[in-house]
Amino acid sequence: MDATAAAHRIKELSQEIEHHNRLYYEKDMPEITDAEYDALFRELQQLETDFPGLALPDSPTRRVGGRALEKFAQVRHSTPMLSLENGFTDKDLTDFDDRVKRFLGLSSSTTVAYVCEPKMDGVAVELVYENGLLAIGSTRGDGVTGEDVTENLKTIRAIPLRLKTAEPPALLTVRGEVYLPLAPFQKFNQEREEAGEPAFANPRNAAAGSLRQLDSKITAKRPLSIFCYAVGLCEGIEFDSQSHFLGSIPKLGLPVNERIRLVNGIEEVLSYYRQMMEERDDLPYEIDGVVVKVDQFALQRELGEKSRSPRWAIAWKFPPRQATTVIEDIVPQVGRTGVITPVAHLRRVEVSGVMVSRATLHNWEEMERKDIRKGDTVVVERAGDVIPAVVKVLTEKRQGNETMLPIPLTCPVCGGEVVRIEGEVAVRCVGLACPAQLLERVKHFASRHGMDIDGLGEKYIEQLLDLKLIEDVADLYTLAEEDFMKFERMGTKLAENLRTAIANSKSRDLSRLIFALGIRHVGEHTAKLLASAFGSLEHLSNATVEELTSVREVGPQVADSIVDFFRNEENREIIAKLSAAGVNPKAEEKRVGGRFTGKTFVFTGALTRFTRDEAKKMAEQEGGHAAGSVSKKTDYVVAGADAGSKLEKARQLGVTVLDEEEFLELMK
Ligand code: IVH
After folding, report:
1. Which of 357, 588, 594, 621 has the fewest CB atoms lying closer than 10 Å?
2. What is the spatial distance between Cα 537 and Cα 449, in angstroms, rounded to a whole number?
3. Same domain, 578 and 620
4. How far is ligand 1, taken at its centre, from the CA of residue 84, in Å?
5. Which of 119, 256, 316 to mutate to test the pocket of ligand 1 (most atoms within 8 A of CB)?
6. What would the mean pLDDT of 17-28 be, rounded to a whole number?
């Protein structure tokens, strides 16, 4: 291919991929299979490697990260990134309002227009758009100079690589907060713990850690997002107020928090604050207060700034979700995958409205690093609805009788072997029959996001295991009402309900079943991808690492874990038992994973054994894909009578040609 043709194809592919990205990430309605998407992506990557000068600055390949850096370059901000003065009480806020009015020479009865914004608990960044293109992205640093994290920021899908406008301004500098929403944060931490990596204490640390990766491929895997909240130096675009700025930039593709309000006077600010306090626990991200800004830029300029913070804004902080309490005990807890976690049993304490009695200490390394001991007085913190964590030990309160919990040498539940895997901080019980693991596996199986078996909670599952009524999750489906009647305090009605709830769960989606099995590294999202890619548990269980990694977002670690899971004889038996009990859901869409995963067929000529549509379906059911024309990428051409130019082309390109009989043979 010559440079002109390459440039043309690169542009075409970039647009096509961005189109499919939007369908996939924004609309959740993909039009092409993952294999097709990957083919487009790889073609673009290859062309960009072959013609490095032709790669577009907003190429979608940037979203997956590039080569790792040695260190970050320094970036000087065009205007300093200031910080904010903090307020904590109603009085701090009314004082702020009084000061603003006094400084502006307004009478105390005037109402100032303020913009109220949630104070995001993340990492402040600056994005510089030159002629519409994202040129530089940096961290705040010391406010004057930050670190160049452009490549990392480009992996964040909420950040446009190019502004959505036909006439971009010469320069637009915006500032905002990069954050990690709570749901992915929890999932991410859980996965880290399962993989034996240290968990992050809160979403802010996780966001900061993710953004400061020298290898942008790692950042690309973290579901970071952004809200923009301030404007810096601009050319060719002007805003006269904060509300004007915030109202304009979403049209350019820059995300703005939808809970931002323009209000009149300090009274309305107070009620905004109260409302946000109430909503705080229901938000999908962590906020630590509200930011109040004078709306008019002319007034902001008049007010100016003190040494490090502007006079026109204040951060009104929420009371911290922290409390001091005592660790009464530290108990090793065995999880579903055998990982043993030290859990602190706390003297019950209220943390901003919620009673807390447990806190995870994550792992021994972390516990030792923070030097957490039984008997210690500690500060606990809760972020969103995340499991509370011990932030620090108040060592000055030590009496001298505090004790450390040593790493267990055997499993505290089954007494079996405990291993510490090389490169992992986790301690793991490897006993397959460990009752603690089994209990956790059944709990996970029956949980709300798993098979959602209504009423089957920990207490009942414990009894089922104690009474040896079940040995694995599949046994649930062969239980009779009489079995439940063996429980303490059980009535016929309740027994009937439990049995019905279990029976009802047979009709759950395939994705739930995959998630419920508790395969390491397979969370809800991955389970959904696998369900639509493989269509049935049987296909998934026979998938190879290669087939698995051909699914978008499934990496080698996840693929290995899936293959290991299904290679295990016990797991295979459980799946057979589930299927025999009628738990055998199929996903609607069947895409990757059959024998023909990633293979392209072209049907041509007059077919007699089946119609072309039927043939297409047959190929697709095995993960193949039917295309309309023959190219180098075609794997098989199935030719009926009087096949014309397509057959000709196949022969020229050396593509395998089959007749109908041979195709049927292949399908067997
Ligand atoms: S405005 C001069 N708005 O809070 C104005 N900051 O304590 C500068 N933050 O470094 C910032 N949400 O990381 C602004 N809606 C918001 C914010 C916000 C979070 C952070 C930001 C800043 C810090 C200042």
Report:
1. 588
2. 18
3. no
4. 7
5. 119
6. 78
Could you tell me if 559 and 436 lie in one domain?
A: yes
Q: Is 119 a catalytic residue?
A: yes
The owner of tokens 């999932």 is: 187
Residue 34 has pLDDT above 80, yes or no: no
HEC-encoded secondary structure of 181-222: CHHHHHHHHHHHHHCCCCCCCCHHHHHHHHHCCCCHHHHHCC
Entry pTM = 0.70
Give the pLDDT band of residue 592 (cuts 50, 70, 90): low
Q: What is the domain-level CATH number for residue 638?
A: 3.40.50.10190
Give me the domain span that covers residue 14. 3-64
286 lines ligand 1 (CB under 6 A): no
CA of 119 to the centre of ligand 1 (A): 7
Distance CA 453, CA 176 (A): 42
Rounded distance, CA 259 to CA 268, Å?
14
When the pLDDT of each residue in the chain is averaged and rounded to a whole number, the result is 90
Rounded Cα distance between 169 and 189, Å, is: 40
User: Can you spell out the DSSP letters for 484-507?
Assistant: HHTSTT--HHHHHHHHHHHHHGGG
Q: What angle do CA 57, 61, 64 make, to 5 degrees?
A: 120
Q: 238-254, pLDDT tens digit by residue?
A: 999 999 999 999 999 99
Identify the domain boundary among 290, 317, 344. Answer: 317
Task: Using alpha carbons, select from 239, 236, 8, 242 the residue that is nearest to residue 132.
Answer: 236
Same domain flag for 57 and 104: no
